[in-house]
Amino acid sequence: MVLKTPLTELLGITHPVLLAPMGGVAGGRLAAAVTAAGGLGIIGGGYGDQRAGYGGEAWMENEFRAAGNARIGVGYITWSLAKFPHLLDQALARNPAAFFLSFGDESQFAPRIKATGAKLICQVQDVAGARRAVDAGADIIVAQGSEAGGHGKTTRSTFALVPAVVDAVDPIPVVAAGGVGDGRGLAAALALGASGVLIGTRFWASEEALGAAQAKQLLVSARGDDTVRTRVFDIIRELDWPMEYSGRAISNDFTNRWHGRESALEQALTGERDRYWKAAKAGDVSTAVVFAGEGLDMIQDIKPAQEILRAIVDDAEAALKRTGNMVRDRQ
Hints:
This protein is of the alpha/beta class. The protein is 42% helix and 14% strand.
């Protein structure tokens, strides 16, 4: 059985699975591994200025080298390209198969991206955003529900958002994101009319992903109930996210102390900042952020990305066969 969808045909991939461009996690080695396994790997450039501990021109150059000759995509938070336009030039010079934009106005960059032949992937959190992205020229829409790890809005869940976006942007392929951690999630997304899934947290718990070993172990031991949507990690890292966005992360001592006390954290920023960055550099996940989605319950181990992707596809095929067997002709 082969899961052939408009997404696989458009991107020329075997399996309808995209690697989420997680900043500081989805580097060149992981992107290349996901592509080699039949999906599309996407390097995450994030903010582009290293305030979060990664990003920037030199960092990206290292990750491009790590990807080798693999056919991959590149992803950026949109407003980072407005601040650092040279990063767009750097990425497009590598002829990526796709360019992934999220959290901002796609229209200012879409013409240049599409002129290179790269497919434009736009991540949205509501139907209005999906329509705006299509008007900008998006080839693929990622509908991100509030279950997702990392940044997003709290207003819509994946299961409700995906079919609404599918109906709004047809025939543009829609990819489901948020809480997808195994093949059942892929099967469910396809049943909702999506053409594939974007997976982040599960691929972080892979051998090829960047990030501290302590963070990966926490992904294995934590569960979806252990996550919280919060702004405290943006405040401490001095990242000026709009108020409608928060980040889903695993609760730790830092969130226990400051979540719900954001004003107090802002007042204590001078003293807390150095302590936070010291912990982050040491891989101390009791203080440093570990962004993760509600799909944590499906993560039991750290494996090569190829094995993770194979298991997701195999399980999705099995789930679709099971549900297909439930259909009977009316008597």
